Task: structure prediction
Amino acid sequence: MSAAGGPVPSTAPAMAAAPTPAVLRAERITKEFGGLVAVEDVSVDLPEHSIVSLIGPNGAGKTTLFNMLTGLYRPTRGRIVLGDRDITRSRPDVITGYGVARTFQNIRLFGAMTAVENVMIGHHARMRAGLFGSILRPPWVSREERATRERARELLAYVGLPRTVFDRLAAQLSYGDQRRVELARALAAEPSVLLLDEPTAGMNPRESAELTAFMRRLRDERALTILLIEHDMKVVMGVSERVTVLDHGRKIAEGEPAAVRTDPRVIEAYLGKQD
Amino acid sequence: MSAFLDALRARRHTLAQRLPRWWNRALAGTLIVFGIVLPFFFPPDSGFMNGTIIAVAYAVMSLGLNIVVGFAGLLDLGYVAFYAIGAYSLGWFGSGFFFKLHIHVLVSPVARTLPGVHLNIVLILIGAAALCALAGMLIGLPTLRLRSDYIAIVTLAFGEIIATVAVNGQSVPVGGGMTLTAGNLGISAVDAPYFPGTGSFTLLDLRPWYWLIFAILLLVLFVNLRLRDSRLGRAWIALREDEVAAVSMGIPLVKTKLLAYSVGAAFGGMAGAFFGTYYTEVNASQFAFGFSIFILAMVIIGGLGSIWGAVAGGLTLGYINNYIIPDVLNDLPSKFGLHFQLTQVEFGIFGILLVIMMLLRPQGLIPERRRQIEMTAQITAEDAQLAEAPEGEVTVLLPPGEGAA
Result:
């Protein structure tokens, strides 16, 4: 990865095969907690197969925005649209089923489940076995179960988890491996939109660079659209086609990375006003 | 050095990974054979057979509660409610209690001549399971937005409500001069199980009773094992581990939790119906709060979340309660010149046993692998809390900080 990292030319991936590409759009959404306005009147557009970064100082409302996009919070006002479907009031598990998957800022794996089981959970919404299917286990359930396990192992290999730890409990994995498992778990949901909440937190520069390259690979190979919360400017500048800047719950800038970087309002938000 | 330790740990891990599949199969095979032939070694009306039958029925209940508390992590303190509903299913559909009705399905020639509703025991067991599954959902609904301690209180209240309804049901008319329950008088003269070919079971020969409850145990065990290694079982454990992550990964919160309550309740109902006919009476005084705790103690002593642990816990407490204390050691104090019987202090004995157990082996008799590692590794999973948000705006619970960041 080049150190300065100019904006990446947004080449449309050759193998985009999805019939109805899901594009996520937030239209003027607001979230109030009692009197506190966490996010105010923010609109975000995720163009198909793009990587968009969401940046801003701590407490700017980035994760709150994520929580609204994934259904954990309901917006107080505004609308969220996935493809041509209004998902503003949909449940989180339903939204995942529609093709939006995420990772968490402070990794949230199921500690007492193995790496493989964690990833299998990611595939939950794509499986069909119900109560009686699980008990009676007809051949199609066995097949589904086997295929899911196989897929989970493939995904873990894809994100670079060493095979020796596939069946280790998630809580026993190293920090870096936990990040990998969480990414694989999100991919197991077969999303069209992937939301990554500070994926490079705690990584050294080399690991961050690797992840940056991997995100591009994800977009191109898996036809994904990625929204990224990121503090590492090197990563932001290197990977995103567009950047949205939040401060105190409001959007203060938006555009190409190079333009946003020199925006006086952004500099002010990060460094304070210079007289 | 540390590489060596890692290799060792990985090795032990793969071993532990391989062992359970083989272990479970072998244990299941041995248990089935041993279970079937067991009654031939004891007199058919012995106290040991009686203790065994009750212990096996406890194991069934313990397996049911283990799904709710062990798998899904929902602390249920009102499990006695399903014992009651199961037992009343038998009282209602297998006795002369509803004396104005004349319904007979596949029952003994004697029962066929009697008034009331008389259904075959298999039908009653299925009905009890279905009724309890429904009741399980009802109790689940108000607890969906709550976390552990609060769930415990709601379920406790539910258990008390059912117990109170059982007592006062004798004043609730259901038409034709009939009432809902017989309260503390009890519904008695309930039908004994009857199968064409075996005749009605009697209390002189306890073997058929044993085989019946043993068959129920095998069925419940089978369902437990299948569910544990299934899409649904995984979803329960995921919800237990981290609710927010689970729903974000596509697990429907309401449906998955309600299924845990239902399945757990259905097993409690089957055991309850069995107890109804085995005790030859359905009496409101049987459904005390202490029984919920008793079943919970079986699950915990066995090893929370562990299927074989639940069986072991149920059998252990069942035998202690119904054989060792009343039949074997009851006269022990008098041998020391003390004027009381051991049955009078049985709760004290249970208390001491629980304390000893928690001190020496807190993970339970046969701990689940996950739990065992959790206990030793001291995993401190963040406990999610309700974010400071107005009612109805947050669909699931988030830990503090996650919302404001």
